[in-house]
Amino acid sequence: MTYFDEVAETRSRADLDAMQLERLGLMLPHAYEHSPIVRATWEEAGVHPRDIRSLADFTERAPFIDKETLRHWREDRRDPYAGLLCVPVDDVTTILSSSGTTGEPTLQPQDWGASGGPVRAGLSRDLWMMGMRPGDRVMVVIFTFRGPAFGMVQQFGAVPVLCDYDAGDMIRFCELSLEFRPTGLYSLSSMIVHAIAEACEQGGFDPTDVFSSYRAMVQAGEPLGARARGIVDGWGVPLFEHTGVGDVGTAFECPEHDGLHFWEDDTLVENLDPEGTEPVGDRERGELVATALVNRTTPLIRYRSGDIVRLTRVPCPCGRTHSKLWPVGRKGDGVEIQGRKILPIDVWPAIESVDECSRGLFQIVREAPQMDRLRLRVGYGPGCADRLGAVRDDVMAAVADLLDAVPEVELVPDADLLKLGPPHKIPRVAPR
Amino acid sequence: MTATVEDTRPLWGIAQYEDGTRRVPWPVSHAEIERAMGGAVSTLAGLGVTAGERVLWCTLLSEAAHFWPLLIGSMLGGAQFSLADATAPDALRVGMFVRQLEYRAVIGVNEAVLDGFDELERSYRDVFGAVSIVGARPGAYERLTAVGLTPYWFVLCGPAVAMATLPGGPARVDPNEWALTELDGRIHVTSTQPRETAFDNTPTAIRGSLVDETSFYPETGAHS
Fold this sequence. Notes:
The complex is a heterodimer. By secondary structure, chain A is α/β, with parallel strands linked by helices.
């Protein structure tokens, strides 16, 4: 069987549109009635949910909300839920929080009583899509603060093998893999990939043995650099990329490995000009704008995520009709050096090409949106503190070779950079 | 005659516990977790956590079989719960939660979290001063006590969870599930109900002195 839920995963575009419109018709009055920030935003725009009779009405008339709007609401009105809470406070069962990569974590209230629990139904489709099956064992390596990720494995009918997201403890990952022979792994990041490789070396594990039972591995957080990707390729297990969709939904790669599907019966996504309101073309870079169709506790409506993606609505060769996206970066993540826009993804290959900096931990130091010279803060691994001058020269040369611009480089221990982020990623652009 | 219905569900999961020498993989059934949820409701009621109050749990994924029943137990009792990792970097998250919202209890605080506050240069009194119940693990308990706070013992005692219901009082396991013994100063556990993994005088990482068959005082300053 190709699909977990063939009907849901292969709906025609017309059916998807009709379903989205129907769900919007329920969601918009609910959000307008109960969410103070949605109400205020729509009133200020002079739009009412009854004005929205088609998806075209929605994309032409509905006002946007962005992270800054939420932050202002949270701070100015001392509302920890940023005006988004649409259910009585007493109905909230769980208050989780965002990863906090770019600032202090924000609160995410949830109502597990009404929603039946913490796990989205679509996640079972994702696990199936990647080749996992009920009855399998799935290694879950993740932090806990976002909620019980292992619940998606249990809901699917598989057994989670639980391993701490601790780069210093990946020998245990190897031992658990060999003892329980999982078929799936959720989730890898650059940091964990390097840590597993080091654990195999230190513990005398043959990666071929460790990974022999796996059929699929999920990578979450920021994209893997080429060096980490090379390590994973050596393990011989298909890697599936996974990302969040504007704090509203999630997206996973399918076996085609050409874009990440998100479920359009759960989330309505637009891809718009980052500086305007018009949609960009198919597969062109734009800003992801997301609207919740199912989450009635804190629904984000036309949320400008700041995530830069490419997106296509062309049905996938895998047979799934739901749109796909490709993460590109964050709006504002770049810096303009002498008129040329440089993103972290442009610098990455040069950094990790230097052995001492192979984990690819670095930040663009941005003192202003436009600068004369690229400034980088670059992490180095243990054992090279006595030759930092040479390491700095190597990094400068590698970046100059790739970008034709010589950067200023500040070297710091990897551990210092890891402290800056949630465990699976770090802020890639930082003030001085 | 009582019929026995076999639980055909797959395992709830494979978690881990510490036995004093290593962390041991621990297969757990759904039935065990469901029974533990009932015990958790009683434990939280015993602590005085009531509907509408909030509990913040500091935990690690490998400890999910210990904590999941407690989280759901909070919810079943009408309390709201939050989660932070019991790691030094996530001290920031613990601090964020208790600053933004009122928590009746923060439970599972360990030395790593306190190390994180040290790095942030946040005093423990500043962070936890307004929290009525701070459930602290061995090591963290002593550090909180040293600055004048009055934590409650919270102990992962092998596969069992032991918690005090009074500050300074002994940590107690669910009497319907576990029995404790002490051998050479180390606490051992025996399971008294059917489990996927049976425990029979199994050593734990915890040193302490028994009060009775289900409660004990951890030995301060010696917790491995």
